[in-house]
Design a protein that fits this description.
Layout (H helix, E strand, L loop, with lengths): L6 H8 L5 E2 L19 E2 L8 H6 L2 H9 L9 H17 L19 H16 L27
Parallel strand pairs: 1-2
Length: about 160
């Protein structure tokens, strides 16, 4: 099992692009908490299993079959669905300041990479140490902050 923790995956999603993964076994980051799988295209390893297949594999044909996109029509419902799923995953996969609201209007922010990293760590501990318990998933979130205490943008 290989874990996908490559900066290329994160950068591709953050740029609004669709990652293409050539692996059947790669586990995507925070797989139990964030649906990254619906934002990527996977090429099965068997597509490269023999020399003949490697020589005759066409990435262009694969992408056309998977998305229906053509040079004349690059945006299709399948492409848009993959891009929307990627946009949803980006917020959870990035490390950022939880407050994205204007100063003083801070609300509860959705979980981000720090929260999922904590959850994944505690889930792994709980799987290995039977006596390890966490009161609730919400207790794994960072405490809320007050926007007034944070420096504002430079004037």
């Amino acid at each position: 099992m290989r874990l996908a923790s490559s900066n290329r995956l994160f950068s591709t999603l953050a740029a609004g692009c669709i990652p293409i993964i050539i692996s059947d076994k790669m586990v995507l980051p925070f797989a139990g908490h964030v649906d990254v799988e619906s934002a990527v295209l996977r090429i099965p390893e068997k597509a490269f299993a023999s020399r003949w297949r490697r020589r005759h594999f066409s990435l262009l044909d694969f992408l056309r079959n998977a998305t229906g996109a053509t040079p004349e029509r690059p945006s299709t419902p399948a492409v848009e669905r993959l891009q929307r799923a990627g946009a949803r995953a980006v917020g959870a996969l990035t490390f950022g300041h939880a407050c994205r609201a204007p100063r003083g209007q801070c609300a509860a922010a959705p979980p981000d990479a720090i929260d999922f990293l904590l959850r994944s760590t505690f889930d792994a501990l709980a799987a290995r140490v039977p006596s390890f318990e966490v009161a609730s998933p919400d207790s794994l979130r960072r405490p809320p902050h007050r926007c007034a205490e944070l420096p504002g943008p430079p004037s």
